[in-house]
Amino acid sequence: MRGPGVGPDADGGGACSEGGLSGDTKAVGESYDSGDGSGENGRVARGGGVGGGVAGIGVIQELYLGPDGLRGGGSREQGDEGSGRRHGPASLTKLLFAITILEGREAPLEPSIRAFIYSFLQKRSQETAQKLKMVKICCLGAGYVGGPTMAVIALKCPSVEVVVVDISVARIAAWNSDQLPIYEPGLDDVVKQCRGRNLFFSTEIEKHIGQADIVFVSVNTPTKTRGLGAGKAADLTYWESAARMIADVAKSDKIVVEKSTVPVKTAEAIEKILIHNSRGINFQILSNPEFLAEGTAIQDLFNPDRVLIGGRETPEGKKAVQVLKQVYANWVSEDRIITTNLWSAELSKLAANAFLAQRISSVNAISALCEATGADVAEVAYSVGKDTRIGPKFLSASVGFGGSCFQKDILSLVYICECNGLPEVASYWKDVIKVNDYQKSRFVNRVVSSMFNTVSEKKIAVLGFAFKKDTGDTRETPAIDVCKGLLGDKAKISIYDPQVSEEQIQRDLALKKFDWDHPVHLQPTSPTAVKQVTVTWDAYEATKGAHGVCILTEWDEFRKLDYVKIYENMQKPAFIFDGRNVIDPQKLREIGFIVFSIGKPLDPWLKDMPAVV
Predict the structure, then answer these.
(1) Does pTM surpass 0.85?
(2) Is 370 designated active site?
């Protein structure tokens, strides 16, 4: 029950527990009766001082150092049960103020008890300060994973100093400017809040690795293009270089965290490099894979489904896991922080991406059948997704999946299966990519066959080049394969994407497969521009005079375009090929368009055209 206040006759006013010395903001204004008599140990008897020190011991009993610092509100055994509520961390100022209130009662605290309390508080304050000693984190790699992840850690952990380092001077300069090198909703605000306070971007790699307690490694792990495992295996050249640098410049014990997606057992290889070059320094390797979706990365970091930390099952390994766990515990609830062994963490990332890609290929395979039979893939997917065992996510049919992870990680998984004598398992996952490639080529074939079996010298407008909306990332975007397919038939292409530059588009169309995943300074310096491709910064300009329009990214603005205006400025018959199902086919047919949408009943015009060239 609540006491009425602090006055000497107030029942709750003299209670040390639940009121007088809790870390609650209401420490003095009101108190709480424990309800079970447990509060009596902490009560200062009216008119009786501290009763031979017994109550003083009760006062101390009410103050304990919990996981979040100095706390009040119950003994170690009692916890928070006495008050039935959780108390916040008690500040030293509040505690001393509460003691002052107690001394203002009818009898002051005895000098010995008062000195004991002050000594206790001083000691606990020093211990708390030690526990809150600033941790230094260095992240090697300022890309799509390293930059946003470190920015959020800096925001959520003000007592942690975070430095993101990269070999690219231009990239670091961009992170230190008002024009960040990557587009991600919400990222600008996070960076601006922390940059210069406890978040820094630098090219002084060796310096900051040497100073760090925890080193995150978020470097490229491209698919090998030559040698053993070419076309499937992950190229760990950059990871090995990072490990050797860490071993070379380290002057104190370090926790090294795998943030890049790597094959199973990579940690073991990295561990060997570090140990054999350690010079007496102890290294602990952890796997902490990211599970971010571009376009929602900041929200994913703020409210993750889970944080996965894998480490060695040794006392030192378990201690390292707890150190990293405490960083995330600043904003992620404990039940969402999963700890495993190293190999489970490494494989979990590959498996998660393989499962997601599999769902997309599954619904895309069904979309082809829907077109052949007159079914609507959106209705089929909705019906299937209502099954709670399946769920609705990742069941949207499209021109195909893209991004830096899905194909690369599945290929890595295929290679691991083959190396471990599991050809049937390898074949199963290989088919996920096969269906994705089929979906892209099927889309190109539909465009060509619908337009009288040729697009030679015809202008085709491409709306969207990023692999998904709300990002400027073009890695493995389906738009690359679609554009190359159309260029193969000598089409003239005009591209518009609100977040992708002309330089990036020309580079993507000129690069060979897998070259995109190498650092920029190792890519071809001057890729030949594709003459048949123009890039505009306006959807209406891109579609002006076009024979057909291909929608390849689901940007929201494409749903709101004035399609009557677009139709009037196009060649006739005017075609729209919707690879993301963002438009209403019936409304566009009423305008006059011939429309193809993935997995939707075919336009009467298209029924007479062959599906495959």
Answers:
(1) no
(2) no
